[in-house]
Amino acid sequence: MPGPVSTPNVSETRSFRRTFLAYLSLTKPRVVELLLVVTAPTMILAQQGIPSLWLVLATLIGGAFSAGSAGAFNCYIDRDIDRVMDRTKNRPLVTGELSDRQALVFAWVLGAVSIGWLWVFTNWLAALLSLGAILLYVVFYTLVLKRRTAQNIVWGGIAGCMPVLIGWAAVTGDLSWPPFILFLIIFLWTPPHYWPLSMKYRSEYQAAGVPMLAVIRGRSQVGLQVILYAWATVACSLLLIPIADMGFVYAFTALVTGGWFVYETHRLYSLAIRHEHVSPMRVFHGSIVYLTLLFVAVGVDPLLPF
């Protein structure tokens, strides 16, 4: 007679799923997703066509591991801040889903895997740029700038610009002017993307002792800075046209989406100086749409015959 068929332990399955999601949360998957959005189009531009699909996949995997490692280190270092802010109160180190040691080991392992992966499956330059991105985010931004200066997002945002250099290096093995223009676009885009978020959560950042610009300055000053950086972003996006010999599709997309992005920042500033109700998250989400469409155009333009 056959023995009774064993069934999976439901509680163990649920526990595994919760632990998996907790580790995934440490990597800040929404940030990783946005970083990958800019990497693939950059690789197409570098190749002036579709690169090897395996190379694209390998670069995206390595980039995801790299960004995830940086995010995990950030969650570990900023766990005291996360406990104060409502926006981050459900992160796994706050809820106790993971221990501090588990998070730190995970960050180190994921970072080491990302560098080794890129070294083996792409090239040494992409791997070194990945290491640089982790160090910039963890050391330069999280440990040095974030709690000391209102310019933390400006200079700390350099780490978020690195994926375009990594993607270009993975294809060509070197760096030239186009990836640095893409780097500068993301660098200038980061403040008008993130400062509206800090406007919404101003009181939480203040309670946590993080000197975001919205904490140090009033809404009108933040709104003005957002406008200036938005204009600079759009101007820089147009520089790519002559430098990378971009075509009509990219030029049209850069002008139209850039104009819309600038309009939204002016609208935010106008409401702020009139002391009316502002919707900073409208600019925050709009900036993501703008950057996504711009980089879609970066990837599509080289594939067209005109």
UniProtKB/TrEMBL annotation:
EC number: 2.5.1.141
Keyword field contains S-adenosyl-L-methionine: no
Main location (coarse class): membrane
MF annotations from Gene Ontology: protoheme IX farnesyltransferase activity
Locations listed in the record: Cell membrane
Group of enzyme by EC: transferase
Annotated catalysed reactions: heme b + (2E,6E)-farnesyl diphosphate + H2O = Fe(II)-heme o + diphosphate
Keyword Transferase included in the entry's annotation: yes
Transmembrane segments: 52-77, 98-119, 125-145, 152-171, 177-195, 222-241, 247-263, 283-304
Annotated GO CC locations: plasma membrane
Recorded topology in the membrane: Multi-pass membrane protein
Gene3D superfamilies associated with the record: UbiA prenyltransferase
Source species, domain of life: Bacteria
Pathway annotation: Porphyrin-containing compound metabolism; heme O biosynthesis; heme O from protoheme: step 1/1
Key words of the record: Cell membrane, Heme biosynthesis, Membrane, Transferase, Transmembrane, Transmembrane helix
One of the GO biological process terms: heme O biosynthetic process
Similarity remark: Belongs to the UbiA prenyltransferase family. Protoheme IX farnesyltransferase subfamily.
Miscellaneous remark of the record: Carbon 2 of the heme B porphyrin ring is defined according to the Fischer nomenclature.
Function: Converts heme B (protoheme IX) to heme O by substitution of the vinyl group on carbon 2 of heme B porphyrin ring with a hydroxyethyl farnesyl side group.
Name of the featured protein: Protoheme IX farnesyltransferase
